[in-house]
Design a protein that fits this description.
By secondary structure, the protein is of the alpha+beta class. Among the domains are: about 120 residues, no CATH class; about 60 residues, SH3 type barrels; about 80 residues, Alpha-Beta Plaits. The chain is about 60% helix and about 15% strand. The protein has 15 helices and 10 strands. The strands form 3 sheets. It has a 5-stranded antiparallel β-sheet with strand order 6-5-4-3-7. It has a 3-stranded antiparallel β-sheet with strand order 8-10-9, with helices on one face. The longest helix has about 30 residues.
């Protein structure tokens, strides 16, 4: 065996040398060129292929000439006064694919006519597949920001187009359909799962897009309160998502009655595993229906004080003055005491404690406090500030200044600080003394011992 291996070695080395010699052999190259020319005249440069190429070129020229008119038409349809941002964005996206879209429509119609007349149309079919992939990739690049999803859609589009070009799409689908399992009367195949996932993804995306457009429409209605706007938006979104799921199941041919067996198990799962989530969901619906709180309200829950940014299906987003966003479960907004500072009226009264020395002019100090409050811009002039004596302390006469503001969402501590600063300045101007703790010590002298 070793001897045979050594004798075969020169032959293995000589094979690449022979191939290299063929590449530089004029006779061999001439033979290959003639074979290529014969194939071109037999397969490509024939009347049917040239006719298809002419139709493809003509469709491209027509699409190229009409791309500007298409863009103008799309802009007129989507940029009318009052159009939603999503509608305008859709128009800009369709303008990007104007050329391939018109070309695809013309090419598809040409292919249908050729197929109906039993003419050769293989090149037209290839062109339609490539144009479809082109449009999908352009739309994916514009509409989908996630690179992973965009890459997956691009790979899937190219795979389907390649299988369609080489006439392997139908055999591949038949093979995937043969890989199945049967659960009672329900037959599930790999092809069914793929179709279901694609249909569900597209329908969920369309439902989400429709929900956003509907949300913009609802928020533009002036006669609906913010809480009812959120309620209608959430209900519409849930309804659209449920419809998308059922439509996707119907498209792939799944009988919805086959899932009746699993309804009991689903109810048990919701009752135990999703108890908190379902409770927060329905609690949020109750909050929106009774309009106890709404976006923009200033609330205080426990130690959290801030403005409601949004009301979600499971929680409410509350942003504090520190810029911290607290996600408070909806259940806590019902089970705990909530102070809504702007529920029926945004006006709130603030109480400021002020102390003056016992030797000060009390009526002048009280009037000075009122004037200091009036000089602050955020203090409401229509609700006059008031100053009262609240008591007599160890070192001071205690006053209480009461004032009103109408914008608690802009902060409370800052307006108090501004009023205190004005009081300090005006006290200095009027000679009103501010107290500080004092203690008098009396020392009793003892008689000297005899």
């Amino acid at each position: 065996m070793r001897g045979g291996t050594r004798r075969d070695a020169p032959m293995r080395v000589a094979a690449p040398e022979a191939a290299m010699q063929k590449l530089v052999d004029p006779v061999y190259l001439e033979m290959q060129l003639r074979a290529l020319i014969d194939w071109l005249f037999a397969e490509v440069l024939v009347l049917s292929s040239l006719g298809q190429l002419a139709v493809i070129l003509l469709a491209y020229l027509v699409a190229y000439a009409g791309r500007r008119q298409w863009s103008v038409l799309i802009a007129w349809l989507t940029h009318w006064r009052g159009a939603d941002h999503i509608v305008a964005k859709t128009g800009e996206t369709l303008s990007v694919v104007a050329l391939p879209f018109i070309w695809l429509v013309l090419q598809y119609l040409s292919g249908l006519i050729a197929a109906f007349a039993s003419w050769p149309h293989h090149l037209m079919t290839v062109t339609v597949s490539l144009l479809t992939v082109w449009i999908i990739i352009r739309l994916t690049a514009v509409l989908i920001r996630d690179r992973a999803w965009a890459r997956a859609i691009t790979i899937g589009a190219w795979t389907i187009a390649a299988l369609n070009i080489v006439n392997l799409l139908d055999p591949t689908m038949a093979f995937l359909d043969s890989l199945d399992i049967t659960l009672g009367e329900l037959r599930i195949s790999v092809l069914l799962v793929i179709k279901g996932m694609l249909s569900l993804a597209i329908l969920l995306w369309l439902a989400s897009l429709s929900a956003r457009m509907l949300e913009q429409r609802i928020r533009a209605l002036p006669n609906i309160t913010p809480s009812m706007q959120v309620l209608f938006t959430k209900l519409a979104r849930m309804l659209l998502l449920v419809i998308a799921i059922f439509v996707a199941m119907s498209i792939v041919g799944i009988d919805l009655t086959a899932f009746a067996v699993f309804s009991g198990a689903l109810g048990v799962g919701i009752g135990f595993g999703l108890q908190k989530s379902v409770s927060n969901l329905f609690t949020g619906m109750m909050i929106l229906m009774d309009r106890s709180i709404k976006p923009g309200d200033v609330i205080e829950v426990g130690t959290t004080y801030g403005t409601i940014n949004s009301l979600g299906g499971r929680y409410a987003s509350v942003i504090t003055r520190d810029g911290i966003e607290h996600l408070i479960p909806n259940e806590e907004l019902v089970s705990q005491r909530v102070a809504n500072w702007t529920h029926s009226d945004s006006d709130i009264r603030l109480r400021l404690a002020v102390g003056i020395a016992y030797g000060s002019d009390v009526p002048l100090a009280m009037e000075t406090c009122i004037e200091a409050a009036k000089s602050v811009e955020r203090v409401l002039p229509r609700r006059q500030p008031n100053c009262l004596i609240s008591g007599f302390g160890d070192s001071s006469i205690d006053l209480e200044l009461r004032l009103w503001i109408s914008d608690p969402h802009n902060g409370v501590a800052n307006v108090k600080s501004e009023v205190y600063l004005q009081i300090w300045k005006m006290f200095k101007e009027n000679g009103i003394e501010m107290p500080f703790p004092q203690r008098d010590i009396h020392i009793k002298s003892q008689p000297a011992p005899v």
